[in-house]
Amino acid sequence: MVLVVYVCPNFTANAVKFIDVLSGLAGTRFALIAQEPSVLLPPDIQTRVAGFRQIPDVFDADALTAAALAIGANLGPIHRLIGAVEALQVPLATTRERLGVAGMSVEAALNFRDKQRMKDLFRQAGLPCARSQEVRGRAEAVAFATACGFPIVVKPPDGAGSLATFKVHNPEELDAALAAMPGASALLEEFVVGTEHSFDTFSLHGVPLFHSLSHYYPNPLEAMREPWIQWQVVVPREVDAPQYDDIRQAAFRALQTLGMGTGISHLEWFRRPDGSLAISEVAARPPGAQILTLIARACDFDAIAAWARLVVFEEFVPPQRRYAVGAAYLRGQGHGRVRGVHGLDVVQREIGHLVTDFKIPQIGQEAAGNYEGEGYIILRHPETEVVQRALLRVVSVVRVELG
């Protein structure tokens, strides 16, 4: 029996999905390390958890190691120690190396987690990326901004998902962004003009076995700055078309450069107005924002189960792509709680046959305060243009009322 230990800070909806699938794998025993008590899990999942440790901070490698040792003392040798949260990848790798568990090394995990280190490796490998510099004070920041020119992007060196990320246009905004950084340093980047996309890959021992890509409408940073924008993500059916050959080649080289082994990676990239590429960053974990669901619907397969078998048993059967898929994120404007959701009847009447998944904002729900909003509607069709037009219809008629 393979002993699988999964680590997560909290039992979010996504975390519960991963736990449900992993704990149900035949031929395994499942254990869990988390910051919340296991009684918060659904009862049927609790019965499948052979070992559990609650610790105050799963991002503390020493505490994580102690918890894993305790589980191993009760259940035997740990064969897999995994987690889907980006900030966990370095402490997970540290714990694996201490306990002799197979998986991504600390050096590789740092390549993915430290964004300036990542950009340095990209430049050494001749991969296209934005100019950047990690700074530790205002003087260094001003020097970079002067050399690069405004606007620039300011974010934490280990940031993820556009959190604490700012587009700044002048020295005053630069000072405000530096003051908002959670640590002593900040990563400053050239602001890349162009369309933003993702490139998601299932890899086994460093070999890409399957990939997908998506288009963001608009860029997440723009969506963060403009609260009226209803963000959209489209996974086209034509992923294997020649127009994506350049990013395919660059993405696979980027993964090799960083040391991707077995698992899912999420790479974000830009297409500049002149057609050239710029890789933004790469994460060694499954994508968020429902992108894994979009990939699953595009290929009619269980993407979470495929990931689980990949990381646990090193097995993966590439699926066949059949559809274009897209998500419209339902975002209320303003502050407060959801008071109403309008326009769903129009969506149901006009394009209800395209809907595969949805999360409708609930009355009384607190505003999310991010570009993913309070809910989403996922659509699919064999033709990419049909999905794109339908998404535009969704965001034009659905309105989430806050107050």
Summarize the structure.
The chain is of the alpha+beta class and 403 residues long.
Radius of gyration from CA coordinates: 21 Å
Question: What's the mean pLDDT score?
Answer: 94
Multimeric status of the protein: single chain
* Sheet of most strands: 8 strands, antiparallel
Estimate nothing, just give the exact number of structural domains.
Answer: 3
Question: Globular, elongated, flat, extended or rod-shaped: what is the shape?
Answer: globular
- The CATH superfamily of the largest domain bears the name ATP-grasp fold, B domain
Would you state the CATH class of the largest domain? Alpha Beta
N-to-C CA distance: 53 Å
Spans of at least 5 consecutive residues whose pLDDT stays below 50 are: none
CATH topology of the largest domain: D-amino Acid Aminotransferase, Chain A, domain 1
Number of strands: 18
CATH architecture of the largest domain, please?
A: 2-Layer Sandwich
Q: What is the beta-strand fraction?
A: 25-35%
Task: Give an overview in words.
The chain has 403 residues and is an alpha+beta fold. 35% of the residues lie in helices and 27% in strands. The protein is built from 14 helices and 18 strands. The strands form four sheets. An eight-stranded antiparallel beta sheet has the order 13-12-9-10-11-14-17-16, with helices on both faces. Strand 9 and strand 10 (207-217) form a beta hairpin. Helix 1 packs across helix 12 (303-313), helix 4 runs antiparallel to helix 5 (106-113) and helix 13 runs antiparallel to helix 14 (384-397). The N and C termini lie far apart (53 Å).
